[in-house]
Amino acid sequence: MHATKIEEGDDREDMELNQIWRACRKIQGAIFRYNFDICADLKQHDPGCSGFVSEPIFSAVLGKYRKVAGMSETELRDVTDYFQIRDGRVAYRQFCKVVCSETLQKSAKTDLATGLEWNDPWHVNVIPQPEDRRRLCLILLKIAQESNIPLMPYFQDYELIAQNVGVVTVSHFSRVLHFMKLPLSEPDFLLLLRRYMKDGYLVNYVAFLKHIDNIVSYLKEHQLLDNSRDIIKDFPGRLVDLELSQLPAVNGCKVVHPIFPDACNHPKKNRSQCDIIFCIQNYVYKNQVRTSEFLESFDALRIGSITKNQFERALSNMGVGKYLSQRELAVLVDRYLDPMDINRVRWRNFVDEIDAVFTIKNLDKMPQCVVESPLRHIQEMPRPGAVDWQATPQSMRELCEEAMAKIRIRIRNRRLYLHPFFRSYDKLNSGHVRCSQTNQIFRTNGILLSNQELDAVLHRYGNELGFYYTKFLDDVDPAEYAMPSMVSKQQLQECPPFARDHVQPEVVSEETIIRILTSAKRQALTKGLAVIDFMTDYDRHREGEILESDFRRSLDNSGVSLSEEEVTILCNIFRSPRRTATVRYRDFCKALDEIFIQLESNMADQVVTAVPLLHLPNLDCVDCFLSFDERTICSQALMKLARKPDEISNLSQVFKDFDRESCGSITQNQFLRGLTVREMHQMLSSREFEAICKCFGMKRGLCLEFNYREFLKILDVLFTTGQVKRNY
User: Fold this and answer.
1) Start and end of every EF-hand domain (predicted)?
2) Residue range 80-135, pLDDT digits in tens
3) How far apart are CA 151 and CA 180, in angstroms?
């Protein structure tokens, strides 16, 4: 027992001496590189030349050069304790002999030193915590198991360029590990740096590779390299097998794909023809690619076929070639092979099939067809990095459904609208946000989920780009309570052909008809639309009648925005008496043209004259209506302000400074500021000010602004006519 304790004590002393010797070597290297005299600094604090200084002075002098030498505080403390005598003083002369002796003994006849004579090639740092040492051993063990080729050449390439001896930078060390596909989490990588860091910014790769080679040789010697998942009983520390730590969760999102996926995102298994077509359709729809423009340039004679090489070049120019392997490209060529010439590809068939993701060919011949864009299989394609939700465990799916039910109840009860919260973080409009931002949005809106429920939701909607909030909101927040459907499914169903003649249109009041026509006239006037130009194309025989479906389509194309019920009422009003399925569009266009021209007929000359009309929009609104008392107050206030018209007060310049868009209106606050600048606000009371703002108010967007041009005209008229109130 005593012998064992003595041996343990001797080992501990040897370890401490090695640490002190390495710390002294660091100081020697720093003295040679930076040429500072640490002994002279210590002698300044020893006037009597006794060879001893106090411990605080010795620690302060060494602390000044600690970072330069790359020493830790533990090493500094060990050196101080080693050269300290019983009375507490430190024998700095002995320290100087150890550190500076080799430098003082150098002669002029010796060869030029490089400074590397004092560097320890096996320099490593001490890891004091036992659990960190155990984790470091596990990391080195797993790296030794994963590295199938020597690592030395990758470090030596850098050493030839940087002219270093046994050290590389931290960034190059990280690049080598990344290139060799040795996945390390951030804590594990920092632990490696703590062990092999040298001089504060370099990594001693020689010591690192030596430890790796020792582990590999041990595993080969005991035939444990192939069966690396067994427990290594004889290895120092009795290491248990441990899986390599995965990449850390980036902002709460775990990487589902392999740690180093293929840059082209090639699938591991062979894809069928349908999978290849779906992949190309998805790429074309996302990037809005016109497929025909890349292929028709190779078909100079417009025969509809090109060679195989030209087809492959067109796919590469389109950007699809990097997603297809040679086998998949051959499968695609076989699908569109020209039966008349097996060396050519029918590119038009390929374009028609790919462009089906946007629309249907010959859609003008099918007016009742409903186009779905994009197609459902394109919408439901899994995004890169997303997991197969059907293959996930049943417990996780049930947990996710419970979390989704909680979120739906919270949204429905509190009437939450989560779209603005997600869009505020999505600056690129990609439909994705970070998972930490998702958790923050949930907490902001009071959606409290447990860690397991939150992980299940993030696992379902997470991918390489982050949290797919667009799909999440479609599933959890359909917003049926906020946006009711305008047309029900029963209204979309058309009447059968045999029952159309028996359907009687509903009686519509004259006020409703005038309102619909006024709305259509207003839109045609403000947008400057010629609606008849959109409807004439459907009237091939110039009969003045078109089909009801064509009438609806032309209204949509022209930009006249009306609801489904309003368009139905217009169709019933202008329906042709000869054919119930047609609409007299010319009569409708004449009713719209009444806002632009007025038809005057001369019975004597039998001439019809079209007189153009100047339409002045009505700027009045419901909020600008004045009662009798308000009109009286407004007239008296205007008579007061007429004493200082624009000629005297020059109010127009103040108002024009506020009106940067020169639209003729400013806000009420700006109007009050303008009166204050000209010292005219004292003439008005609060009621008079509100009456004037209401009298000259005009709607601009959602705000009620002040029409200062009309206001200044009224003041000039009152001042000119002498209607001025002298005493106020």
Assistant:
1) 646-681
2) 888 888 778 888 888 888 887 644 344 434 444 444 445 566 778 888 888 888 88
3) 8
d(CA 40, CA 44): 6
* Structure tokens that stand for 471 in this block: 């799909």
d(CA 471, CA 314): 33
Half-sphere exposure of 239 (CA within 13 A, CB side): 23
Please report, as a single letter, which amino acid is at residue 59: S
| 149 three-state secondary structure | coil
What is the CB-side half-sphere exposure of residue 494 using CA atoms within 13 A? 10
For residue 142, give the CATH number of its domain: 1.10.238
Structure tokens at 168: 């590389």
Whether the model clears a pTM of 0.85, i.e. scores above it, the answer is: no
The whole-angstrom separation of Cα 392 and Cα 405 is 19
CB of 137 within 8 A of CB of 239? yes
Measured CA to CA, the distance from residue 458 to residue 436 in angstroms comes to 10
Q: Is residue 706 exposed (0-12), middle (13-18) or buried (19+ Cβ within 10 Å)?
A: buried
Residue 528, domain extent:
510-595
- CA of residue 467 relative to chain centroid, distance: 10
- Whether residue 445 has pLDDT greater than 60: yes
> In 236-307, which ranges are continuous DSSP H helix?
273-287, 291-295
Count CA atoms within 13 Å of residue 288 on its CB side: 0
Give the residue ranges of DSSP H helices in 559-627.
564-573, 585-593
pLDDT in tens, 142-186: 888 777 667 777 776 666 666 566 788 888 888 888 877 776 788
Q: Pick from 343, 168, 373, 384: which is nearest to 255 by CA?
A: 384
Phi, psi for 374 (deg, rounded to 5): -75, 170
The predicted model gives 312-337 an average pLDDT of 87
Burial of 332 (0-12, 13-18, 19+ CB in 10 A): buried
With vertex at residue 561, the alpha carbon angle to CA 559 and CA 563, rounded to the nearest 5 degrees, is 150
Euclidean distance between CA atoms 378 and 381, whole angstroms: 5
Domain end residue (candidates: 430, 459, 480): 480
Instruction: List all residues 6 or more positions away from 672 whose beta carbon is below 8 Å from its beta carbon.
Output: 681, 689
Pair 157, 203: CB distance under 8 Å: no
- CATH, residue 587: 1.10.238.10
Residue 15 lies in a domain: yes
Residue with tokens 């070639």, as numbered in its chain: 321
Tell me if 236 is assigned to some domain.
no
Q: Which of 119, 264, 144, 269 is nearest to 204 (CA)?
A: 119
- Considering the domain architecture, whether residues 638 and 708 belong to the same structural domain is answered as yes
Tokens of 390: 């059907």
Joined tokens for residue 560: 């006249």
Q: Is the residue at 675 inside a domain?
A: yes
* Contact present, 90 and 52 (Cβ < 8 Å): yes
Q: What are phi and psi of 129, to 5 degrees?
A: -75, 130
Write the CB contacts of 160 (distance below 8 Å, at least 6 apart in sequence). Answer: none
Structure-token pair, residue 521: 């006239």
Close Cβ partners of 177 (under 8 Å, ≥ 6 residues apart): 184, 189
pLDDT at 484: 41
Pick from 542, 521, 696, 495: nearest CA to 596: 521
Alpha-carbon distance of 588 to 531, in angstroms, equals 9
Answer whether residue 352 is part of any domain: yes
Question: Identity (one letter) of the amino acid at 237?
Answer: G
Q: Which residues of 591-629 are buried (b: 16+ CB within 10 A; e: fewer)?
A: ebbebbeeeeeeeeeeeeeeeeeeeeeeeeeeebeeeee
